[in-house]
Amino acid sequence: MWADKSAIYMTGYQLFYTFSVLIGPLMAQPFVTRYEPIVANLTGNNEPESYREIHGNIGIPFIIVGALFLIFAIILLCIHIYKRYVPPSKSISLASLQTSGSSAPGVESSVSTTSSTLSLQNKQKPPITFKKVVNMFLFVLIVGIIVGLNFTTFNLLPTFMEYSHLNMAPEKADTMQTILSVTMLIYVTVYTLLALKYWCYMKNLIYINWFMLLSGNIVLILFIHYQLNTWAIWLGYIFLGIGHSTLYSCAMTFVSSHIKLSNRVTGTVVCVTGLCSAIFPVICGQFVHHWPVALPSMNLILGTSGLVAFILLHVLLNQKAKPNSNV
Questions:
Q1: Which residues, in sequence order, are bridge partners of residue 54?
Q2: Most-buried pick from 6, 40, 198, 307 (CB within 10 A)?
Q3: Distance between CA 257 and CA 204 in Å, rounded?
Q4: How confident is the model over 213-228, as pLDDT tens digits?
Q5: In Å, what is the CA distance from 314 to each residue of 178, 198, 255?
Q6: pLDDT in tens, 11-54
Q7: Number of domains in the chain
Q8: Quick one: which of 226, 234, 225 has its CA closest to 179?
């Protein structure tokens, strides 16, 4: 839709997504079942002898999120009814034809003929070449890996910390994950402000995201292998936060600036990202309890595969070809 200027809009979307990732757990925390120690029953080591269970109602946060989705869906429906989106090329061509037809009498037949010719040309699908198929496959693969890595990291990092050599409590592991969310929010905010002025250069920063993502997983692997202290977790979480922050938006911006994404391609992307976000955490979750290093190892392998696929796509898109060609 926005082609070269998509960096401004995609980073805005990523900014609000990161903000929701940060406030979502905070909103659900009061409604989660928790255990509080009974201070009256203390042992000789000042440790509680018993705990009191405080029942929560986890359904309330889901009701709030569902209500917000319903409100936003109604707003989008109203916007669609008020002013439906029309592709710029078609709207400009038809508007110019109507203007010329109204200003010059006696040319209605030529206007109608030209309009019918344009409609026939729009219905003709461009030929599907082998290069276009490869580009589409690489694009879908890259976005699927990015979204799958994002879901796997956020879902399994607390479990990774809980079963590591530090044996971190679940509450503290969830608190440590806030470092990841805060880092993402800071980086996305700076990126969004820069994209407002330097939007044409922001798409090339995706290699920084790939580098930080791979570096963060390497730090976590070293943390497990050498049984390092908490400082390694801080460093790894900061690297992962920068890596995940704008990786998705940069990938979409880069691809949309070279090719026009059709409904067929974007629909395939939605299906593949949904599958990856469901399959990756399930596969990794079977091993992370007994083998915590499985999480950063799997992320490192998938991240490296995504980087190789992106470099290959970058090379193919930079070859001599017409820009904004349909896929």
A1: 34
A2: 6
A3: 11
A4: 999 999 999 999 999 9
A5: 33, 20, 9
A6: 777 777 777 777 777 777 777 766 666 655 555 555 555 666 66
A7: 2
A8: 234
